[in-house]
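Predict the holo structure. Ligand: flavin-adenine dinucleotide.
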Amino acid sequence: MHLVWFKRDLRVVDHAPLAAVPAGAPVLPLYVVEPGFWAQPDASGRHHAFLRETLDALDDALRRRGAPLCIKVGEAPQVLADLHRHRPITALLSHEETGNGWTYARDRAVAAWARAQGVPWREFPASGVVRRLDSRDRWQARRDAVMRADPLPAPASLTGVVLPSDPWPDAASLGLAPDPCPGRQNGGRGRALELLDSFLTDRGQSYRSAMSAPLSAADACSRLSPHFALGSLTIREAVQATAARQRALRGSRDGWAGSLKSFQARLAWRDHFIQKLEDQPAIEFHPMHSAYAGLRDDAPTRRTAWARGDTGLPFVDACMRSLIATGWLNFRMRAMLMSVAACHLWLDWRETGLHLARMFTDYEPGIHWSQVQMQSGTTGMNTLRIYNPIKQGHDQDPTGAFTRRWCPELAAVPDALLQEPWRWEGAARLPYPPPIVDVAEAARQARARIGAVRRGDGFRDEAAQVVRKHASRKRRSPRRGDGRQLSLDL
Ligand SMILES: Cc1cc2nc3c(=O)[nH]c(=O)nc-3n(C[C@H](O)[C@H](O)[C@H](O)COP(=O)(O)OP(=O)(O)OC[C@H]3O[C@@H](n4cnc5c(N)ncnc54)[C@H](O)[C@@H]3O)c2cc1C
């Protein structure tokens, strides 16, 4: 039988592995719930809940085509071996996955198993990401060509191999901590299509001007990120639908043109950052510039206050509490949370990055670890921006509505002092913690410490290397595709 292994490509439209199944050939669509994956420190209950909803929608779409989804629980190499014993797999088909370090290691184990069994495993590129890219110089042109090609239609019908699924493992049985998220987005392709449609016809008009403030961004941004993360919608579908809308609105002067241009740019950034992790998987674990290794502390008290939204810095706490309750935050506020953690609180980027990974329903390792490092100033190539959370509060929440909503303890504080309640005469009576740091002094210290690192011996030489790697001439560092033979011909 052909086995289509679904990973983070949970759809039937624009799905190359599914489209590659010859007409009439028996096919088993498989999803493997891997306990080892869910035991990783970047996994969370909200990811698990969103996945379940997305898989339900996928099963429905596959079932209507004659091939219900089979869900197995276990480690992928073992699950595949068991299925192969039961009914030989003549071809294993999947997308290439640029996930975290664990999925990379798992893919190597699956490749070894497939080779040993003589099972051909054919992997198809995901979006614009190129495996074993030799030079970044032509990457953009290749990505553009992928985006221009027509999305693959869903197969009209499939000849399903019907095998019983295992019972769905609940979050607790996978060792996941309770993770209440009452405002979490719901999964499933239907939801993704609704969001795309409402964004392109209505919500997206003010995207460019409204994306920076957390209250307006929640509606004006597309909110497609968790759907892209699990692949219920492809970037190509979004790029083409946006391009069609851009053509229809050509010449309009009502904000749409700028907004849709910005949106297209972000869809391209997504592929750019995932390509970066594909090329440099180490950035999930190590600072891009080694001078920053071990520079910061992992002070549990400060980290816990930050992670719970209890720092006594109102706008920081409001953003964190909103994220915990909804699973989403706009770009600028994600950047500010990371900047405050890494600079004012002088916390290590890896542990704080893991907390955000668990809280983001849309956790996408390729975007996440690059952004975490950029906003923490560990890349050696980007200018470090230290966000002032008091100023951000004034600029991005001028009425204070967002801050008051998530920090109700501050109800009595006058508007003018909302972002600095410690300056209010009644501060001692507030059921709210005093500020964990002096914002100006902590920023000054961080700037001085980082400045000292940048003036250190050899810093510039390595920074120049990081820039070269980024601009990507020929690569020397190990890459995901190196040392393994995954794309075997059918
Ligand atoms: C510290 C930090 C961590 C982040 N971690 C993630 C993550 O784990 N997953 C994730 O999807 N995004 C991440 N982002 C990027 C960005 O904040 C989110 O993609 C965006 O807020 C998601 O909301 P949206 O779908 O409404 O985005 P929109 O603004 O509508 O953008 C559309 C799509 O473009 C892509 N995109 C948007 N901004 C960026 C960007 N800066 N870089 C790359 N791609 C982008 C996303 O796929 C997004 O869904 C992170 C940003 C920061 C600063």
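The mean pLDDT is 93. The chain is about 50% helix and 5% strand.
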